[in-house]
């Protein structure tokens, strides 16, 4: 599957900046519609080390209302999380209605790093494909919109980015010994990724494989997919004037008669429109 992805796709800077501006504006508007419709949204980012997950997330959230999303960077489980079922910590991080939860790595570690590194027994990671499908199906049944991205780069491009990070003090912190060890197991990880994509893509929660050798193309492709998915799920035509209007908030509840009388008894002024 991965070998058919065209990693030569790219955008020049002018194309990138023009499309970035358009899609970031649309994503911001869709964030308001998401709140108005009270739909939770989960966005998962997986990909090779140095594939650009952080950069894609930064561009995705650049114009979103900060009150409407949270980014969860996921590392190895610790403390209570390590003592419970691997999905426990993700249940606890799911978004409220109308909000977005973005996962920088996710529950898919069970069938990738835990599989390859031997942290999960074969029967555990093999069982996890069905567990994950069931988990996501429950979210969808609740009304959650799920997007899942695999950011794909070539092995040569990864090496170039590793060496670039290593040579730049302001980026060297991003590169760890674990990154190099993972690279040595590229073939094992590639097989795990192929199995993951095949066994956990569903009609309601499909994977989007993004050609990420070119960062401009990658970021725009992620934004474009988010716009297309959210607008389709919420039945919003982004080309219409209605889509460009921020949804109004629900009207405030009227003040009941007993509360008005109590306020008057206490000498609290009650606005005329509340009576």
What does this structure look like?
The protein has 275 residues and is α/β, with parallel strands linked by helices. It has helices at residues 13-37, 53-61, 80-83, 88-91, 113-116, 122-142, 155-167, 177-184, 186-200, 215-233, 257-265, and strands at residues 41-47, 69-73, 100-104, 145-152, 207-211. It has a single domain, classed as P-loop containing nucleotide triphosphate hydrolases (Rossmann fold, 3-Layer(aba) Sandwich). It has eleven helices and five strands. The protein has a five-stranded parallel sheet, sandwiched between helices. α1 packs parallel to α10 and α2 (53-61) packs across α10. The N and C termini lie far apart (65 Å).
User: Segments where pLDDT lies below 50 for 5+ residues?
Assistant: none
Shape: globular
CATH class: Alpha Beta
Element-by-element helix/strand order: HEHEHHEHHEHHHEHH
Number of strands: 5
CATH fourth-tier homologous superfamily: P-loop containing nucleotide triphosphate hydrolases
Give the C-alpha Rg.
22 Å
Percentage of residues assigned to helices: 40-55%
Give the count of helical stretches: 11
């Amino acid at each position: 599957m991965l070998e058919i992805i065209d990693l030569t796709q790219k955008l020049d800077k002018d194309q990138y900046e023009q499309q970035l501006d358009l899609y970031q504006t649309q994503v911001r508007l869709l964030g308001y519609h998401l709140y108005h419709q009270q739909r939770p949204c989960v966005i998962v980012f997986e990909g090779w080390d140095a594939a650009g997950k952080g950069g894609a997330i930064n561009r995705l959230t650049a114009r979103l209302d900060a009150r409407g999303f949270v980014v969860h960077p996921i590392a190895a489980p610790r403390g209570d999380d390590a003592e419970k079922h691997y999905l426990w910590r993700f249940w606890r991080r799911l978004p409220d209605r109308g909000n977005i939860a973005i996962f920088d790595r996710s529950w898919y570690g069970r069938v990738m790093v835990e599989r390859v590194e031997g942290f999960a027994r074969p029967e555990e990671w093999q069982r996890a494909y069905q567990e994950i499908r069931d988990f996501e199906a429950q979210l969808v049944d609740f009304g959650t919109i799920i997007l899942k991205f695999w950011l794909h780069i070539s092995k040569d491009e990864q090496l170039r980015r590793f060496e670039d990070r290593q040579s730049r003090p302001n980026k060297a912190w991003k590169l760890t010994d674990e990154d190099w060890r993972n690279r040595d197991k590229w073939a094992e990880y590639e097989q795990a990724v192929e199995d993951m994509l095949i066994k956990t893509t569903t009609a309601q929660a499909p994977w989007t494989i993004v050609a990420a050798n070119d960062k401009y193309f990658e970021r725009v492709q992620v934004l474009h997919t988010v716009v297309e998915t959210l607008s389709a799920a919420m039945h919003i035509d982004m080309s219409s004037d209605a889509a460009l209007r921020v949804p109004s908030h629900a009207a405030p509840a009227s003040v009941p008669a007993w509360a008005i009388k109590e306020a008057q008894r206490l000498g609290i002024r009650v606005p005329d429109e509340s009576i």
